[in-house]
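Lab notebook, bench 4. Still working through the backlog of constructs that have no structural model yet. Next entry is a single chain of 170 residues. Request: give me the structure tokens for it.
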Amino acid sequence: MRRALAPALVVTLLLVAVQLTVFSSLRIEGVVVMLVWLWPFAMGLTGNTTLALFCALVAGIFFDTHTTTPFGLTAAVGLLLAYVASRLGREGVGDLDSAAWWVTPVLAAVAGLSAPLLYVVGGAFALNFNLWRGSVLAMMVVNAVAFLILARPVTRLARSVAHVGERVRR
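Model written out:
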């Protein structure tokens, strides 16, 4: 885990930068695709819970410092997604090698479908009702489709960063 911490931090910060510079200005039907939620989910599918939660926390906190949303809400949704994905990853459900080719994208699509809903409901608990402005259904569908498409490449990146499948040298 220690060997993967520095590369995970670098990739997480790079993905947050891509999120803020590219994806935040690129809107599909007025909706922003949230890489900062897909990355911890993909990292969780590697089965490394600690690393997935670390990536979720760092991505969420750094993203929230640049937006006007409730501070920590993006991180909270990312932590929840990372934890659920890590439970699935430990069981081998989302494994790219042993599971069917469609399992990882479908799991990511479910995460993309549920994350915006969790975000808006979490914002309501934080008494921020501005998050209800757009169509929650549009946010859910756009993120689900984007996560479906991006799941395999992002999960491959997560596996390489987490050093999954590498043999330990002695």
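Notes after review: The chain is about 70% helix and 0% strand. Helices lie at 2-23, 35-45, 49-64, 73-91, 103-125, 136-162. Flag for follow-up if needed.
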